[in-house]
């Protein structure tokens, strides 16, 4: 045995470690039970290492230090921020839209204080929570009325269940989509209690397909934005306007599930025009559903706007109560929607739009600025270079659209086992104090800088980068 190594019996007891000033300080911060558990971990690890014949620093101070490190790591919130350098602006797995500062402030206030959530301040009597955002939604979409639920999946479920439970819902075969995270249109329809009536074919659906499917059992016609894919080539679909005319001739409502649902013309920001909610309302949809945390750039929510009589029916459905939104999100939604009243400053204030519209020259300049710091942090094992790359909007928004972007590519310097080196590199970035999420592409680990706004924090964070256990 190593002369400096203690024997198993010489490993300090939990009580001995607990008496050190470092442990006592930890008790103040983390509470006694957590500290005792941490010291147990540390002493057990020391014992194990010793039994395995390893050299162990097992002084009370060293063990208190180990316990402290364990506590620090354990105390990091699970919901801590990451750097989204994937190049996908609305990344569902990274929480989609980052909300505007105004929304953060409004949500914070709503958490901290009582608010008139379901209380009519003018009348001094009970009110409706939707009234916090109803008139804003109507103003921004041109709809007669509006309601809010937990997310767009809930919006579709509620609309189908309210208008077509026990009835038929007509959908084009080209629109029977699956959105990531197990939202499949046919399954939602089944859960809503509606009978799916498919019309047309995958690539072509005609007006007469809808017309012949309408019968007295029809509850509604559903039009779905094919968010995450595009049918190209020999295709035909029926315009919303034409479907609305058909539906109304038979006194059947048209529900248009827009998915993303932007409130502004994206073409003015150099992106492809996407049908806006107002346009969908104007072309005759009786109800339009869309998400809060996609192109709209707010918190998770689902909106249903449209005819007053239909919205009133939605609100009377007991399901609405189960799908409703809490005061924190309602406050954030209201603040987000208010930003849309000042279109000139929207791109500056709404992070989603700011990031989508960020000029590529600006991103490239950031890449040039950050290259030296990144190169130093990864060391000589990787070659770092500024590259042109492409970002995407994400979350099924403008799926066919790639936006020119720039980033930093890191390639293993040695030719051998580059796959393993890339995995180790990605692991290293992911286990930083603030995890950095990039993407592996063409044998390189790529950091797309479109969504990086706090460069100083990014550089500070790099100081603790470890690749494959080495500094
Ligand atoms: C994203 C999407 C949904 C689901 O919306 P969530 O807000 O994620 O629940 C439904 N329909 C379409 C067309 C979508 O793009």
Strand order of the largest sheet: 4-12-11-10-9-5-8
Number of strands: 17
Number of domains: 3
Chain-averaged pLDDT = 93
CATH fold-level name of the largest domain? Aspartate Aminotransferase, domain 2
Task: Describe this entry's structure for a reader.
The chain is an alpha/beta fold and 471 residues long. It folds into three domains: 8-75; 83-92 and 355-464, Aspartate Aminotransferase, domain 1 (Alpha-Beta Complex), CATH 3.90.1150.110; 101-349, Type I PLP-dependent aspartate aminotransferase-like (Major domain) (Aspartate Aminotransferase, domain 2), CATH 3.40.640.10. 41% of the residues lie in helices and 17% in strands. It is built from 19 helices and 17 strands. The chain has helices at residues 14-18, 21-30, 32-51, 60-75, 101-112, 134-141, 152-164, 185-191, 207-213, 240-249, 277-282, 308-316, 318-322, 327-339, 346-349, 351-356, 360-378, 418-430, 455-462, and strands spanning 83-84, 119-120, 125-126, 145-149, 168-172, 178-179, 183-184, 195-199, 218-224, 254-259, 287-291, 302-306, 382-391, 403-412, 436-437, 439-441, 444-448. The strands form five sheets. A seven-stranded mixed β-sheet has the order 4-12-11-10-9-5-8, with helices on both faces. A four-stranded antiparallel β-sheet has the order 13-14-17-16. Strands 1-15 form a two-stranded parallel ribbon. A hairpin with a 2-residue loop joins β16 and β17 (444-448). The longest helix has 20 residues, at 32-51. The radius of gyration is 28 Å and the shape is globular. The protein starts with 13 loop residues before the first helix and ends in a 9-residue tail after the last helix. 43% of the residues are buried. The mean pLDDT is 93. The structure holds pyridoxal-5'-phosphate. Pyridoxal-5'-phosphate (PLP) binds next to α7 and β10. Its EC number is 2.9.1.1. The modification N6-(pyridoxal phosphate)lysine is found at residue 294. This is L-seryl-tRNA(Sec) selenium transferase. Its cofactor is pyridoxal 5'-phosphate. It is found in: Cytoplasm.
């Amino acid at each position: 045995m190593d002369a400096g190594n203690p024997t198993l019996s010489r490993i300090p007891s939990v009580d001995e470690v607990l008496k050190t000033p470092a442990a006592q300080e930890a008790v103040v911060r983390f509470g006694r039970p957590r500290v005792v558990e941490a010291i147990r971990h540390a002493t057990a690890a020391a014992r194990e290492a010793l039994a395995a014949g390893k050299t162990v620093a097992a002084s009370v101070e060293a063990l208190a230090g180990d316990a402290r490190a364990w506590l620090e790591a354990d105390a990091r919130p699970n919901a801590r921020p990451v750097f989204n350098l994937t190049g996908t602006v609305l990344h569902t797995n990274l929480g989609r839209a980052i909300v505007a500062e105004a929304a953060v402030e409004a949500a914070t206030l709503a958490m901290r204080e009582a608010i008139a959530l379901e209380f009519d301040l003018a009348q001094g009597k009970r009110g409706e929570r939707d009234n916090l955002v109803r008139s804003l939604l109507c103003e921004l979409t041109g709809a007669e009325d509006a309601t809010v639920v937990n997310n767009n999946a809930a919006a579709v479920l509620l609309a189908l269940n309210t208008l077509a439970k026990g009835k038929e819902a007509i959908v084009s075969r080209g629109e029977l989509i699956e959105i990531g995270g197990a939202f499949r249109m046919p399954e939602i329809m089944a859960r809503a209690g509606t009978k799916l009536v498919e019309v047309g074919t995958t690539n072509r659906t005609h007006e007469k397909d809808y017309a012949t499917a309408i019968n007295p059992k029809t509850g509604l016609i559903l039009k779905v934005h094919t968010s995450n894919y595009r049918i190209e080539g020999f295709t035909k679909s029926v315009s919303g306007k034409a479907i609305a005319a058909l539906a109304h001739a038979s006194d059947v409502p048209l529900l248009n599930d827009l998915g993303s649902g932007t409130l502004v013309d994206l073409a003015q920001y150099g992106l492809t025009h996407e049908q806006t909610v107002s346009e969908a309302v104007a072309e005759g949809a009786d109800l339009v559903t869309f998400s809060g945390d996609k192109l709209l750039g707010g918190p998770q929510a689902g909106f249903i706007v449209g005819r007053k009589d239909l919205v009133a029916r939605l609100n009377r459905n007991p399901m609405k109560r189960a799908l409703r939104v809490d005061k924190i999100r309602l406050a954030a939604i209201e603040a987000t929607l208010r930003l849309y009243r000042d279109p000139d400053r929207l791109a500056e204030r709404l992070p989603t739009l700011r990031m989508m519209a960020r000029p590529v020259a600006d991103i490239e300049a950031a890449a040039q600025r950050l290259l030296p710091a990144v190169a130093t942090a990864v060391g000589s094992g990787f070659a770092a270079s500024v590259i042109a790359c492409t970002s995407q909007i994400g979350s099924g928004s403008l799926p066919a659209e790639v936006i020119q972007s720039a980033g930093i590519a890191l390639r293993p310097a040695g030719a051998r086992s580059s796959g393993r080196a890339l995995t180790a590199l990605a692991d290293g970035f992911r286990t930083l104090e603030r995890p950095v999420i990039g993407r592996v592409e063409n044998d390189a680990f790529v950091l797309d800088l479109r969504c990086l706004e706090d460069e100083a924090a990014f550089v500070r964070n790099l100081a603790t980068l470890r690749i494959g256990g080495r500094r």
